[in-house]
């Protein structure tokens, strides 16, 4: 009966073991996972746009090859995550419709423009760096297919982060103009990167329950702090200034203190009012419509081959 199922479910969580697709799970647990995994998948797919815009304008063949591979990796991440989400009984088509109708979200960070090639480096360093902080603990999330998808994604994200850092390091060794371009880019992406971790714990409606279910392993504020602690020494090595006058080592806490992000800006960007929300969604919708013939052809082919008994 239901009580027994709940006890088994909680025992699995208590052992920090995995819940698998065929296991019983509370409906709210399933819905929370669909929400988070779908949002994550959509972020990977929408996240191809800001950097993809620079593929035709890469400064060298080498940079172009790197960027192409990276953007393709993001598509792959989206596909693993959609597949993980499908194990919870929703189809990729439904998820795509939920994104296109604005009923599911994607990360705020991809609603900011990429204005120079330095942004490709900054996104690798800061945005993928933040993603790694958030995602490494998700390898231990309580839902099996999500955790396993995260393992491969994290390996690739680490590689992306290093390529971003290497790009910025190369520009830092270049001309004054290149160094100014790096600093300007870091100035624009620093605060939005901190916002990727979500609202402060005190204003996060989902954190407590998601932690209790082992979906999230750390709170938004814990991960934000970890990201700041990890990034400050990297900024020093790179020779850039992070645009926060309150940033300072706090020996007592053993962490860096930092200023408060503009939470009104995060709310605006999440609700559709960021600098590029309309553009990102229009582009995604157009790509979906342009791909209709491919989906139709694949469906027709699948129907024919199954009729043939092949
Ligand atoms: N961008 C867009 N929406 C956000 C963001 C953000 N940066 N932060 C929080 N939100 C949304 C939440 O989805 C939630 O809305 P919803 O209930 O309609 O889904 C609302 O704001 C309140 O936030 P929380 O209660 O803190 O929500 P949650 O517990 O889901 O935590 C977080 C948000 C940390 C983003 C979590 O969902 C998560 O870890 N997701 C997996 C990682 C991920 O999605 N990464 C994508 C970007 S990284 C990359 O792809 C390179």
Automatic annotation (TrEMBL):
One of its GO terms (cellular component) is cytosol. It comes from Mumia zhuanghuii. PANTHER family: 1,2-PHENYLACETYL-COA EPOXIDASE, SUBUNIT A, PHENYLACETIC ACID DEGRADATION PROTEIN PAA. This is 1,2-phenylacetyl-CoA epoxidase subunit A. Signal peptide: none annotated. GO terms for biological process: phenylacetate catabolic process. Its EC number is 1.14.13.149. Gene3D superfamilies: 1.20.1260.10. Keywords: Oxidoreductase. One of its GO terms (molecular function) is phenylacetyl-CoA 1,2-epoxidase activity.
């Amino acid at each position: 009966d239901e009580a027994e199922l709940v006890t088994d479910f909680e025992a699995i969580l208590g052992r920090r073991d995995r819940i698998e697709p065929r296991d019983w799970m509370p409906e709210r647990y399933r819905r929370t996972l669909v929400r988070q995994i779908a949002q994550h998948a959509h972020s990977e797919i929408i996240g191809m746009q800001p950097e993809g815009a620079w593929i035709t304008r890469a400064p060298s063949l080498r940079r172009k090859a790197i960027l192409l591979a990276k953007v393709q990796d993001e598509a792959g991440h989206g596909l693993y995550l959609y597949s993980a989400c499908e194990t919870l009984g929703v189809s990729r088509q439904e998820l795509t419709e939920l994104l296109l109708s604005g009923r599911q979200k994607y990360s705020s960070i991809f609603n900011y423009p990429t204005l120079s090639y330095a942004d490709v480096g900054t996104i690798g360093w800061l945005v993928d760096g933040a993603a790694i902080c958030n995602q490494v603990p998700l390898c231990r999330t309580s839902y099996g297919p999500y955790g396993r998808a995260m393992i491969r994604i994290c390996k690739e994200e680490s590689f992306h982060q290093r390529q971003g850092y290497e790009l910025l390091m190369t520009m830092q060794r270049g001309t004054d103009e290149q160094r100014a371009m790096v600093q300007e880019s870091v100035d624009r992406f620093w605060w939005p990167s901190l916002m990727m971790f979500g609202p402060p714990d005190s204003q996060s409606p989902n954190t407590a329950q998601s932690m209790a279910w082992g979906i999230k392993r750390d709170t938004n504020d814990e991960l934000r702090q970890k990201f700041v602690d990890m990034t400050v020494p990297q900024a020093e090595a790179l020779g850039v200034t992070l645009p926060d006058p309150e940033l300072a080592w706090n020996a007592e806490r053993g962490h860096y203190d930092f200023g408060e992000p503009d939470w009104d800006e995060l709310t605006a960007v999440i609700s559709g009012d960021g600098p590029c929300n309309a553009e990102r969604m229009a582009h995604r919708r157009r790509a979906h419509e342009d791909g209709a013939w491919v989906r139709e052809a694949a469906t027709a082919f699948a129907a024919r081959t199954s009729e043939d008994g092949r």
